[in-house]
Amino acid sequence: MKLANKVALVTGGSSGIGLATAKLFSQEGARVIITGRDRTSLDTAAIEIGGDVLAHQADVEDLEQIDNLYKAITEKFGKIDVLFANAGMGRFTSLEATTEAIYDEVFSINLKGLYFTVQKSLAHLNDCAAIVLNTSFIGSLGLPNTSVVSASKAAVRSLARTFSAELIDRGIRVNAISPGAIATPFHSKTGLSQETVEANAQKFIAQIPMKRFGTSEEIAKAVLFLSTSDSSYILGAEIAVDGGISQL
Known about the structure:
Layout: E1 7-10, H1 16-27, E2 31-36, H2 39-49, E3 53-57, H3 63-76, E4 80-85, H4 100-121, E5 125-134, H5 147-167, E6 173-179, H6 194-207, H7 216-227, E7 238-241
Parallel strand pairs: 1-2, 1-4, 2-3, 4-5, 5-6, 6-7
């Protein structure tokens, strides 16, 4: 029970990596908070997670909703020991086809939302808490049609370093997890057709040294590692869980 009596917040926790991580945190003894934009998905996820869970509807693009989230957490659980800033999205478009609306949406969720989720957590975090940011393998690879989402995730990688420098005096460790190609609903929300998603999947599998997609559960285990004293001497790092593709 590595998180016994701990309070853990997972943004974007109603599906995919966020849900798998919330379930693992709960199994390890944590009282868990998940966020998401869809009430029905949150309620379903809360049942899957079980235990002492708070499913709070919130959009990380809206700073007032972030404030309300922390107010609800304080009222129910008190202070937070683990924050997994996981909420994010991806839109895959060419440089030529990218619109201002696409650019603004991706950066608003992936960077602004994450930034202020962490900033507004500071008054609610226990000293020696752990923060894990979700980046992506595409942030370090020059893949076509990913310029906006890649840039947003590369910026998150930078935040892991700068946040670490600012928060280490409180004993708060900030690290990042960099998932590779993972079988999650994320891929159905990219704006690409199902045929294109499937074709891209086969191309990715051919390039991945392990010749398969990863699972949300594999990412969750790495997030758990960064959230506990097992990683007590790791700071400002980005751990790749990507089947080796970023090492090519």
